[in-house]
Structure formats: C-alpha cells, structure tokens
Amino acid sequence: MPLPQKVKKIFKRKPSLVWSVKDPNSLSSEGALESVLGYGDWQDFLMFKDAVGVEKMKLIFENLKSKRRVNLRPTTINYFTSYFAKYA
Fold it and tell me: How far apart are CA 51 and CA 55, in angstroms?
C-alpha cells in the first residue's frame, strides 16, 4: 500500500523522523508507523491517525509488533497496545 499524501507531509515537515531512510516515499506503512512511533511526538501520531484511520493504524501496528525484530521500545509497544485496545 502506498503512503497517503498526509503521511508524506508528516515526513516533509519533520525529516528527522525518517533520518535513516534514503527515500521516505518508498517506506512501507509499517516502516512509516514505526518511524512515527519511535521518533515522533503526539502531534505526528495524531496526523498519522488522521491520514489512515485508527482501525487501519491498529492493523499496521499489530503486524509491526508481531515481527521478529521491532525497532520500538518495550514501553512504546506496551502503551500503544493498550491505546489500540481501548480506542480501536
């Protein structure tokens, strides 16, 4: 799934979120969400949620956290697991 324009705007506004990626437009949805949750702030999270919706975001997060290697802190995973359980 290609990234929505609103998500691309997040990365244009804050290129530090995707500092390790040569071409941010080539990111997968999981990679984009991982960047926002790992390096972004609450406003970035809300913009991402507005772009894809909370249900879709939950599915992306569930796929992301089920992978063998995840670049998110355990506290971040715990928080958003609880968040999506309540709001999605």
Answer: 11
